[in-house]
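Exercise 7. Given the encoded structure of a 166-residue chain, write a plausible sequence.
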């Protein structure tokens, strides 16, 4: 049943994700992965949707809106926070930065599955592209975004107690 549903929905999902991706700032593969995940979760909890095609179109649009909101809210820092650059080379700040880096690396090593390799690749000083990271890990480039999100969520949960305790 599930295999038939996936097989029948795949062409529609590819087309819908391609149509919505550009406007949302996402990769079509990332949208597809997110919708497949939502479908599998729904199949497990509620069973198949009564109208799978309608559900799929709605799910793609919902994921595209979620991506647009996230992209709109994420802003890179234009500069270093005030006062950081002028004190960056003081021994105390260097020691604290080293401790933060150690805590981060320790948390990355405790991540499940292939997350440690993925996060290490993201943190690499080589500044690897998604294509290079996907090739290094042996996964599709479209899987990288959702996988990265899951890994960073796990990392966030691992670091939260440490940040709160500090």
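Solution.
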């Amino acid at each position: 049943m599930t295999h038939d549903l996936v097989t029948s929905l795949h062409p529609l999902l590819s087309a819908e994700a391609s149509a919505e991706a550009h406007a949302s700032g996402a990769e079509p593969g990332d949208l597809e992965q997110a919708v497949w995940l939502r479908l599998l979760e729904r199949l497990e909890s509620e069973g198949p949707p009564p109208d799978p095609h309608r559900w799929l179109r709605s799910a793609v649009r919902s994921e595209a809106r979620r991506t647009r909101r996230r992209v709109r809210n994420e802003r890179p820092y234009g500069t270093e926070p005030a006062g950081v650059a002028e004190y960056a080379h003081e021994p105390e700040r260097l020691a604290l930065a080293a401790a933060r880096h150690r805590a981060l690396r320790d948390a990355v090593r405790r991540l499940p599955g292939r997350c440690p390799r993925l996060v290490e690749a993201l943190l690499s000083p080589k500044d690897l592209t998604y294509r290079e990271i996907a090739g290094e890990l042996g996964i599709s480039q479209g899987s990288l975004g959702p996988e990265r999100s899951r890994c960073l969520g796990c990392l966030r949960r691992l670091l939260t107690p440490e940040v709160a305790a500090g």
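Remark. The chain has eight helices and no strands. Students should compare their own answers with the one above.
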